[in-house]
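Worked Example 4.2. Consider the chain below.
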Amino acid sequence: MSDFLSEFPEKIAQFGMIPNVDFSEQELKTEAESLLKNDLPIMLISNVKAGDLKSLYQLHEAYPELMLGIKGKFGDAQLQQLYLYGISFIIFDDFDEQACIRVCEQGILPIPSIENGVQANQACFMGLKMAHIEVGKELEIQETINSWGKFMQIVMSGRKLNESLSSHLARHEIAACVFSLDELRQEHEDLSVCVQKKLMSFFKLHLAHVGINTDSHEESLNNANMLASLLHLGVREGKKSAFAGSMFEIMYSPFYYEHGHVALGCADATRAYLYFKRRHIEFIEDTVSRDPDGNIIAAYFKQNFAGFGIHLLWEK
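Applying the procedure from the previous section yields the following structure tokens:
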């Protein structure tokens, strides 16, 4: 299998979000700059026609680090020349086996739209790694989707996704969700601010608990019991710490940093970790813990915050 058929889907799945803009929007460079500024280097451009492709190449030349995708209908001649325009992936409006083969030959990832189990199985048989499904339609072929396992993942789009990106991406078969940049622009004049808010709402970052260092098991339990009594909480003893409710973790012995740590709960610690890494933020890699499927459960930032560490915590 060609490397790009594995590389591109993996990158798209790491982003989780695919910002979409209509080609009729005349500020593609502004949108590209906003995405790159917020370390989300991917954009899907819809309603692209054959005559628009040269403009996309200019966009690619200006921002080569941006992963460009297109959605539209093209004839054979255009499909055979897409590699000239810096396109990484294409979402087809329907399932066209020959069109998928043509773009594969050029090192472009085909993502055909799937509407039934027959198409889904055929795409999987062809070795395709991604398929596109409109939100709601996956319910009609859920049994087929379940049978794909890890062979093929879904890129999902639809208006109903805007309010539920995190819950959809919690499903292992969904690699990424498409959202509209044009709709975000209506919420705020500064598109960059809108993208920031979208990213944070996707990760659902929040204070999960505060960790407090102590020097002994006995001191830890004493403090846990005091907090529990004060706030009417239960006490739960673990291997390394005692919890007072879910808000306070009292360590049996000092862990990282002088005073303790703050746990940032998030809907998707794996993608949050990769997002912060794209922002050149360092982690203590020895603290990165994963579940049997490779999903990140927790990861400590390397930065010391006034004697406290901060770590991501996946809250399933």
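The first helix runs from residue 4 to 15. The chain has twelve helices and 16 strands. Compare this with Example 4.1 before moving on.
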